[in-house]
Structure formats: structure tokens, C-alpha cells
Write a structure and sequence with these properties.
- The protein is an all-alpha fold and 404 residues long.
- A hairpin with a 6-residue loop joins β2 and β3.
- α4 packs parallel to α16 and α8 runs antiparallel to α9.
- The relative contact order is 0.14.
């Protein structure tokens, strides 16, 4: 392990946590896919092999990116933003539809799919970070500063919200957080929030008045999830998947009578994963707790919090605001996705499609998370090189003084 870590630059703790989560994802994916085998056929090994390929790609991307100069991220930010728009528009017209949601683009020849919003999330965070630095001096000016900043946020979130409300909401909140940290005038931020709410309500009214336009084709699904969550006791059938999720968590409890001192049914012995939709993704946490127990669940939460802390530490240690904003945005994004997955599985949040970063089965989500962490590690590596250069200069100065 020590030899491996010598080749991996940047923050060692982030590398260790990333490698641990990715390694465990191979075990959990193999265990959590019985329902997928029932629906789509194949064998668990088929999905394990596919996931293993994604893990290798993700690690390769993270390693390659973490060796790049962070200055390139700022230079490519605008290109990444326009590429995200192009991908989202392509998905809008030609995307693969699953459960009435067109979120995926099928990659030719290999048969794999890519979720455009996964790339768009990171692209927007990087581009907004660049604009916050570039427009810092003119942020009080609506035309020169504020509008060029909020327009990309509105465009990307508007393109995502049609098929993925939760992702658009999380991304919008992260951008607002970065604006607050960058000390964008409060009244302008408040105006953006108010305008966003009014615009969304207006679109909802259009969808209600003319449903054939399908501006928000999943509006009814969102309403049902919210109302079913609010009336959990009355809508038993509609909330069956949530109830199964909570039962799975209950099955993972510590039970001394069954000699389960640490809790959990054991890897591969979960009972309700065969009834949970997407136990390997959207309901990952429930399946994880059922098999691993509450102590392991607490360890998982701590790993995500440590990951957030290390990312924020790198960002706040940077002398460049762009790097600080990127790190904060990436850290908040990863923790938000993990938190929503946990809240949904525990019945504290309406059902929505956010999986566990680095653990859930999936291609584009895992690759883009690895890409984001690679960017953070690149920033950490550049800080290490600056510190080493400063130490070398200090040693040279000391030698000159001793000589004199």
C-alpha cells in the first residue's frame, strides 16, 4: 500500500477513502443486484464485471486528472459548460428513456449509457467558480457581473429539471452556496431565489394547463412522491418501497439473541434487497445497513464526513479563489448526494434518484465523481509542490546565511 501511495500524489486520506469505497462497491454491487437479474436477466457476475470496468475507468480518470495543472480546469471551464449544454440538448431530443425520464445517452458500439446531468453538474460548478473570480469586482453591476453569473446556472438547471428535479435542486443550492461564500450581494441572491421559484411555479402552471406540451412530464410523479410521503400512514401501497427500505434497515439492527452483536444480516444475506427497486443505487443505503449493520453504517457516514473535511481543507488552504470554490463545490455535491440517499432510505425525505457516491452501481456517476476528486487531488498536489519549493528556497537562504 505504501508503494502505491507514493505514486499517488495529493491528499493520501482522500486516496485511501476513495480506494476503500470503490473496492467495497464491487462486493456490494454483486450482492445487491438480484432484483436487476430478475428484471433484465443475466447473472450477478455480469453486472459485477460491468461495474468493475467502470471502477477501472474511474480510477484511470482520477489518476490522469490529478497529475494535471489546476490552471487547465479554469481554462477549460467555458468549453465544459457549452459541452454540457450540448449533451443535455442531445439527451432532451435523443436520450434513452427509462421510467418516463430521458436522462441517458447511449454510447455507440459499446452498449453503455451515459447520464448527461452527471457531467453537467461538475461542468457548472467549475464554470461558476471561474465566473465568481472573474466577475468579483463587478458583481454589483447587474449587466456586467450578476447576469453573466446566473445565466449559466439557470440554463443548466432548466435543462436538468425536466427529468431530474432533485439533481437540479441540489445543483442550484450548491451554486447559491458558492455565491454566498463569494460574498455576492445578498439582495441579488435573494432575487435569484425568488425569481427561480416564480419561474418554476409558472412552468408548473403551464404543465397543468397544457399537459400535452410535456414541459414537465414527470410533474405528476413528483407530486405523488411528495403527497405519499406526507401521508405515509394512509398511502401504504404507494409507499411500499419506502416501507421495504425502512424494514431493511430494521433487519440490520443489533440482535444479541441471533448472535448479531454488530448487527447486519451478513454480506449476501439481505432479504429485502430483492424487493427494493434499485437496491444497488437509489436505495443503496437501506441494503447496506441490512447486510452490514448500524455500526458499519456509522463508519460509512464518518468516511463521507472525513472526505468532505479533507476536500474543504484543501480548498481553504489554496491561495487561489477558483481552486477554493471548486473544492467546496465538489465536497458539498458529494455529501449532498450521500445525505439524500440516506434520508430517502430512512423515510425522512421523499423518494428521489440520488445514489451513493463511489458505492452505487453506475457508470457516468462514478466516473464523474472520480473526475471531480481528481481535480481536488490536482489542487492538493500543486499545493504540495509549492510547499516543497518554498522549503527548498528556505534551505538555500539558510545555507547562504551560514556561508556568509
Amino acid at each position: 500500500m505504501s508503494e502505491l501511495l507514493k505514486r499517488l500524489k495529493g491528499d493520501r486520506v482522500i486516496w485511501i477513502i476513495t480506494l476503500l469505497l470503490l473496492a467495497f462497491s464491487l462486493v456490494s454491487v454483486y450482492s445487491f443486484v438480484p432484483i436487476l437479474v430478475k428484471i433484465e436477466g443475466g447473472t450477478p457476475f455480469k453486472y459485477l464485471f460491468k461495474h468493475f470496468i467502470y471502477v477501472l475507468i474511474g480510477l484511470g480518470v482520477m489518476f490522469w486528472v490529478h497529475r494535471r495543472d489546476p490552471a487547465y480546469f479554469s481554462k477549460l471551464a467555458k468549453f465544459g459548460f457549452y459541452l454540457a449544454i450540448a449533451l443535455l440538448l442531445f439527451t432532451f431530443f435523443f436520450g434513452v428513456r427509462v421510467n418516463d425520464a430521458g436522462r441517458w445517452v447511449r454510447i455507440p458500439f459499446v452498449g453503455l449509457t451515459f447520464q448527461s446531468s452527471d457531467f453537467a453538474k461538475l461542468a457548472l460548478i467549475v464554470y461558476v467558480s471561474r465566473l465568481l473570480v472573474k466577475k468579483n469586482e463587478v458583481m454589483n453591476d447587474w449587466r456586467e457581473g450578476f447576469l453573466p453569473l446566473v445565466t449559466p446556472i439557470i440554463v443548466i438547471c432548466a435543462l436538468i429539471v425536466k427529468d431530474n428535479f432533485s439533481t437540479a435542486a441540489i445543483l442550484f443550492a450548491i451554486c447559491l452556496t458558492l455565491m454566498f461564500i463569494a460574498k455576492v450581494p445578498f439582495m441579488k441572491v435573494a432575487g435569484l431565489i425568488g425569481g427561480g421559484v416564480v419561474l418554476f411555479l409558472f412552468i408548473v402552471l403551464i404543465q397543468k394547463a397544457a399537459p400535452d406540451l410535456r414541459i414537465l412530464p414527470r410533474l405528476e410523479t413528483w407530486e405523488n412522491r411528495i403527497f405519499n410521503h406526507a401521508n405515509n400512514d394512509e398511502n401504504i401501497i404507494e409507499n411500499a418501497q419506502v416501507q421495504n427500505s425502512m424494514d431493511a434497515i430494521y433487519n440490520g439492527r443489533v440482535d444479541v439473541t441471533e448472535m448479531r452483536v454488530f448487527g447486519g444480516q451478513g454480506v449476501g444475506d439481505g432479504q429485502l434487497k430483492e424487493y427494493l427497486p434499485e437496491a444497488y443505487a437509489d436505495f443503496y443505503y437501506a441494503s447496506y445497513v441490512e447486510e452490514m449493520g448500524p455500526i458499519a453504517a456509522g463508519i460509512l457516514l464518518m468516511l463521507y464526513l472525513i472526505l468532505l473535511y479533507r476536500i474543504m481543507r484543501i480548498g481553504l488552504s489554496s491561495k487561489k479563489l477558483f481552486e477554493t470554490y471548486v473544492c467546496l463545490g465538489v465536497g458539498i455535491l458529494i455529501l449532498s448526494q450521500a445525505s439524500v440517499n440516506m434520508l430517502v432510505c430512512t423515510g425522512m425525505f421523499p423518494v428521489t434518484g440520488q445514489n451513493m457516491p463511489l458505492l452505487a452501481m453506475g457508470g457516468s456517476a462514478m466516473i464523474m465523481t472520480c473526475l471531480a476528486l481528481g481535480m481536488v487531488q490536482s489542487i492538493a498536489y500543486s499545493q504540495q509542490k509549492e510547499n516543497e519549493e518554498s522549503e527548498d528556497l528556505l534551505e538555500d537562504d539558510n545555507q547562504v546565511i551560514e556561508t556568509e
